[in-house]
Amino acid sequence: MKKLILFTVIIFGIFLFLSCDDETSRPTFPISAEIFYSLDGQQVAFTALTHSAVSWMWDFGDGNTSTEKDPVYVYEEGGYYIATLTATDEVGNSATAEVNLAIALTPYALLTGDHTKPGYDGKTWKMAQAHSVNDKLVNSDAELSLFDDGIEYLPTGAFDLYLGLKEAYNDEFTFYYDGSFKHNTTDGSSFGGIVYAMVMQQLGLTNITKTGGAAVFGQDAFALTTYTPEENATFVFTENENFSVPTIPNFATGLDNGIPIVTYPNVMTIDFPNSTEFIAARDFFPKVMVEEITDNSMRLVVFLTMSPDAIVNMDPLIVLSTTALILTFEVVN
C-alpha cells in the first residue's frame, strides 16, 4: 500500500513538473492587429483581430474615439473616413491597423472623390461623348420641355457630328474636397453659346475660333472661344436649394426686381462665384443644376442664351436664358 501511494506521488510530481515546464516554454505571440468591419448605412460594426493585446484604442476618423475592443459606431455624416485601431500589449508594445471607409456617400463626396486616399488629386470629370437618352436640348422653362420635338435626345457625338465642334468634349473639370477647382481645356478653347461668344468678343474678352449649328438650326448657335482657365478657382456645391434663373417671359414662374425668372425647387447646384470659371458650356449662366450624381457619372442642366433678343441691357448686363442643355458627365480615370 505504501508503495502504491509513493508511486502515485511520484507520477503526480512528474506530471506537475512537465506541466510547469510547458507553461514556461509556451511561445508568446508578438502584438499584432487587423480590422474586420461590416457596414449598414452609416453604422459600422468593428472587430479587432489582435494577438496579445490587453487594450484597444479606436480613432473613427471624424474626431471620435473608443476603447472598446469591438465597437459599433454610427457616423453622423456620410463621406470618406480612415478608421484606425491601436492595440497595446501588457508591456506597452503596440500595433496599428487602419481601413478606408466610404460611408453613405453624400453628393459632395461623389463629386470630389476620396480625399483620404494617398496621392489624392481631386476628382476629374468630362462631358460624355456617348451621351445618354437623358441628354437633351430643352427650353429654360419649369418643365425643361424639349426645344425641338424632333430632337428627343442628343445622339452619340452630337456636338461633333451635327455641329462640327468635336472640341466640346475636350475640357476636363477637377473638383477638390477643399472647394478648389481646376479646369483643363487641353487646346486653349472652350465650348459655349454663340450669343455669349459674340458679346464677349465685342467686349474684347475672348476670340471666336470656330462656330457650328447652321445645318441644324439654320444659323450658327454654338462656338468655340479662346479661354485661359482661372488659377486658384473655387466652387460652391449646394445640396438643396430653390434655384432661380432669369428667363424669357413665356417661361417665367415669377419676377425678381422686375426680371422674369423660373425657379427650380429643392435642387442641387454647382456655382463658381466671383470667377470666370464654368463647367460644360461657357455662357452667361455659370451656375448649373445637378440632376443626378453617382460615383462614376453625373447629369447637369446648363443654361444658355441662344437669341440676341434675350439681352435686355448691356450696361449693366442683363441677359435672359432661353435654352438649356442636359448633359451627362463621366469620371476621367
TrEMBL record:
SMART domains: PKD
Domain PKD positions: 50-103
Domain of life: Bacteria
Lineage, highest ranks first: Bacteria, Pseudomonadati, Bacteroidota, Bacteroidia, Marinilabiliales
Cross-referenced SUPFAM superfamilies: PKD domain
PROSITE patterns xref list: PKD, PROKAR_LIPOPROTEIN
Taxonomic source organism: Draconibacterium aestuarii
A Pfam family it matches: PKD_4
Protein name as annotated: PKD domain-containing protein
